[in-house]
Write a structure and sequence with these properties.
It contains 1 helix and 5 strands; from the N terminus they run ββαβββ. It is globular. The N and C termini lie far apart (33 Å). The model has no long low-confidence stretch (mean pLDDT 83).
């Protein structure tokens, strides 16, 4: 499963969709990056393959960053899934 993660301006929570194939994920990634570079007010509509009936519509000008990665059964060495940053501190032990 391949995950496309969108980080939004003024929002600490990312939007994520999953795609079954790398080609489908890369097509959506390209769609997002082209909308970002166009400079026109474009509404992007994305769907998720893992969660049926999950649809995202977003104004491209509100996207701060986009990331594409393969979702594996393991997490990173820190125990967190891949991402840009974490705004929530670790709990004190």
């Amino acid at each position: 499963m391949h995950t496309l993660e969108l980080n939004l301006k003024q929002s600490p929570l990312p939007l994520m969709i999953q795609k079954e194939t790398l080609e489908a994920a890369q097509a959506d990634y390209k769609k997002v990056t082209e909308a970002l570079t166009s400079g026109n007010p474009v509404v992007l509509e994305l769907t998720c393959d893992q969660v049926t009936n999950k649809h995202i519509s977003i104004l491209a000008s509100e996207i701060a960053a986009v990331q594409l990665y393969e979702k594996s059964g393991t997490t990173s060495a820190s125990g967190r899934p891949p991402g840009f940053f974490s705004l929530v501190p670790d709990e004190a032990k």
